[in-house]
Write a structure and sequence with these properties.
The chain is mostly helical. The chain is 56% helix and 0% strand. The chain is built from 8 helices and no strands.
Length: 150
C-alpha cells in the first residue's frame, strides 16, 4: 500500500492538464489534498483517502498539499518547470488515455481490427495435429438406454 502512497506523492499534478482544468472550475476554499486524492483515485489508480492521511502523518516527509485551491492559484511555475511539465504531460496523457477507453471505443477498435492499447497480444498458433482418441467409454443417450434394457 505504501507504494501507492509514494506514487501519489510523486505524481506531477501540475503537468496533468485534466487536473489543472478541473482545478480552475473548483470553488475557492476546497482543500487541495482532497482534490488531488479524488483526481488520483478517479483517473490514475485507487487510493484510500484515510489510509493515505494516516500514512502521510506517520511518515517523515513533508508535502505542500494541505493548502487550499485559492492559495495554489496564487503560485506560478517557473519557465524550466513548465518545459519539463509539458514533456511529462504528453507521456502521461498517452498512458491515461489507454486506461480511459470506454466500452464503445474498445468495441470500435475491435470491429476495425485495430489493437486495443494496454492489452497484451497473445501469440497463439494452431498445432495442426489430429486429436487424440478418447480413452473413456461413450455414455449412452436416454433413448439408447431404453433399447439396450429390452
Amino acid at each position: 500500500m505504501e507504494s501507492v502512497f509514494s506514487r501519489f506523492d510523486s505524481y506531477n499534478f501540475e503537468a496533468d492538464r485534466r487536473f489543472q482544468d478541473g482545478l480552475q472550475v473548483l470553488h475557492k476554499g476546497t482543500k487541495l489534498l482532497d482534490v488531488k486524492l479524488f483526481f488520483y483515485n478517479r483517473f490514475v489508480e485507487p487510493i484510500d483517502r484515510t489510509s493515505y492521511k494516516q500514512w502521510s502523518s506517520a511518515s517523515s516527509h513533508v508535502t505542500p498539499m494541505d493548502c487550499s485551491v485559492e492559495q495554489l492559484n496564487q503560485t506560478t511555475p517557473s519557465d524550466s518547470d513548465t518545459n519539463i511539465s509539458k514533456n511529462q504531460t504528453t507521456e502521461m496523457s498517452a498512458e491515461t488515455e489507454a486506461k480511459q477507453l470506454s466500452f464503445a471505443e474498445v468495441m470500435r477498435l475491435v470491429q476495425e481490427g485495430k489493437e486495443v492499447p494496454g492489452v497484451t497480444k497473445l501469440d497463439i498458433q494452431p498445432t495442426n495435429q489430429s486429436p487424440a482418441p478418447s480413452q473413456m467409454e461413450r455414455i449412452l443417450k436416454p433413448w439408447e438406454m431404453a433399447s439396450v434394457s429390452k
